[in-house]
Fold these 2 entries.
Entry 1:
Amino acid sequence: MPSERLKEQIEAIVSELAGTEVPVRLERPRNPEHGDVATNVAMVLAGRLGRPPREVAEAIVERLDRSQAGLASVEIAGPGFINFRFAESVFQSQLASIVEADRAFGRSSSGAGRRVMVEFVSANPTGPLHVAHGRGAAIGDAIASLLEWTGHEVAREFYINDAGVQIDRLAESLEVRWRQRQGEAAELPEGGYMGEYLVDLAAEVEAEAGDKLRAMDPGARRQWLRDWGVRRLRSEQEEDLRVFRVVFDEWYPETRIYAENRIQDTLRELGERGLTYEADGALWLRTTTFGDDKDRVLVKGDGTYTYFTPDIAYHREKARRGFDLAIDVWGADHHGYVPRMKAALAALGLPDFLEVVIVQIVRVMRGGKEVRLSKRAGEIVTLRDLFEETGVDVARYFFLMRSAEAQMVFDLDLALDHSEKNPVYKVQYAHARMKSILRKAGVEPEEADPRTADLGLLTDPMEQALIKQLALFPEVVERAADARAPHMVCEYLEATAGMVNSWYHAGNPSRNPALAVLTEDEALRRARLVLTRGVSIVLRNGLELLGLTAPERMEREDAE
RNA sequence: GCGCCCGUAGCUCAGCUGGAUAGAGCGGCGGCCUUCUAAGCCGCGGGUCAUAGGUUCGAAUCCUAUCGGGCGCACCA
């Protein structure tokens, strides 16, 4: 990266001027007239040195070794910005390095040596996954991917809440449905699961083990239904997620926390640290010591644990399993739970171990009206309903294209639009077009080789702007990973695709054959094919990073 | 009542640790098809950045207050 070298040089100059280390930030000006990169360091330094910003800027510029940094021009502008423009050769060599890196372009090792667990979805195994889970699934998976691209060692994990009262209710509800099937007048329990899916599952139960269940005593039958229901629903979730292209390294059951006595270990450790106490017949944790609003109950008056307790033990296990950082992706309705969980981990001596990404709610709109996500004939209820209608690529992209912390509207009409109005297709189309040009040129991608092309021939402003845009990709990945913000990659891909489509159309042979990739001029054609390949590499890497496909060609529906 | 998120163009949203005339997509309006696939492209219009103060050379961005929307405030999970 040429800007890296420049940054180091400026840092050296500036720390000499100031007499101390001064961090330098190079930014990309919005306005291209302000150069390729710019810095405000002279303004930052002006106050400290007691000199006018422009004078400080002069001093910095005087000391610069332009050729060493690959600079074509440097100017001081406005209140004291320094604007830099790189030599064209710098961008030409960047295009060459994009093509050479190919699938590795955009990857870095900045996170090397860091083991991170991303835990997401973690839906209760009491029913099918809903639309809201889909957003968490897409975002969690993309964050994990971003961390992998930046060199972290990443594990994706799903925590199965297969213990606790919600599972008792599942077992009861399933039993009621099974008995109703046999004509008994059974009523769903308070807080039972009313979904129709349990009626279907009851039919499966009957087919699989009806006679056996009738012969069992009630306790054994309940236990059997409980195990069967959890297993069945869990595997249905796993299958839905697999089709949605989200694959977990581990499905970690809550019952394992109990089976391995982790709760006792955790309570003992908290007790030894003097952070628990008994009051009103319950055992409490002093979470207020670590920033929570009130202390929390660990063991209820009846001797059972709150939901919190096994969850603390589970997060303690994450650290014990060797992870340096745990990132949890939670729904907005759990945000109030964040301070207490962080407090509990701080109590265990793990103050910075947990990072929580809160994913806000999704509203689905069709025809300008909100789709009620309750069960109603023909309306979308589950994640599977949604992606079966839109396709997996579209559903994933729509979930990812907005920042997680903002509520989002899922516009089904736009999602179902197969034109380039749909941002997913816009990006995929741009990719397919590059592939189409390569096919038309009759070359394999590897034959578009920067070593046998003169990239100096790419002098058109559109081409140069495009090369600069492609070169930004690694920085975008880096920032998106740091910010746990996959939507930044979407923004970048859409902007890139827009430029690609303009370039492609400008070179439409019927309009301006001089700009066409497949031009008569053999040398120019070779150079443009390298750019074509570079574009396809960046778009493909970006799409695949987000878990989307990069199609070789787009299906064309015959227009009427 | 307290806490968290949000309030930017008609709609949906970007705006990176404050930076140079506030951006994109959709919708609207006007052009452009014997195509490296027009499922498109080019251009135009459109904003008191919720409001009021404050900090700063500089605020959509930071601070305070107010208003509006969402969510959460259990010995539920």
Entry 2:
Amino acid sequence: MLLVTWNVNSITARLDFVLDFLATRRPDIVCLQELKVDDDAFPRLAFAQAGYACATHGQRQWNGVGVLVRKDAGPGPEIVQAGLLGQEAAGGRLLTVRALGLTVTSVYIPNGKSVRHPDFALKLAWLDSLATYTEGLAREGGSVVAGDFNLCPGDLDTWDPARHAGHIFHTEEERSRFQRLLAQGYHDVFREQVPGERVFSWWDYRAGSFHKKQGLRIDLVLATGDVARRATAASVDRDFRKKREGRVPSDHAPVLVELA
DNA sequence: ATGTCCACTAGGAGTGGA
């Protein structure tokens, strides 16, 4: 089973890219973030024609998350939870579905802007609420929480740890909250499959960051032990961070995890 | 390197967000 997470930076702008990816890789489950459309405007017909069923928790203009499930692989997705309890004001950033025997949560953690910006405290509060929510999922097992976490778990997940130390995405406050999820029983599946290697999932559009290999690993796949044990491979598909036939990519690449 | 891309409002280019 191939499971993917991808922040597409507008599903409208990226539809051709995503359809191209689905045709190429035929993933079974895809967690999407930054749809930037409400549920009514989500192009579910295009995905149905491509063989995928969709569940979305959309939002006009900003945020918005969804899950695609390959129809041939089985039924679903069946929505379990749309939105993070108590954090509705932060926008559409969490969707939990059941599909293919898993409980899959697509998340888009708030960016926070900078450590001194008021949004940083909101980000930490959102992460606290997330941990409260995932406690139950972790106990049940069969849980995958995948998405754009807007934080680098460790120094191996950033192109220049010294330069970024203590700055947004790299603070002790963010990392300790990430560790809390691991303490609940979640595994960072990509990192366990690819230990010790500097691999990124996001590169700034500006300054030629992608070609200079100046990126961050902020798109993560967490899974409870029963699921993480099934993992056989993980990768980032950098091809989909490149222009294709003149079309502009998302600033994130898809992250892939193979489960037995 | 304030370097790019997206959506919204508006009916063109500026603004906010990432």
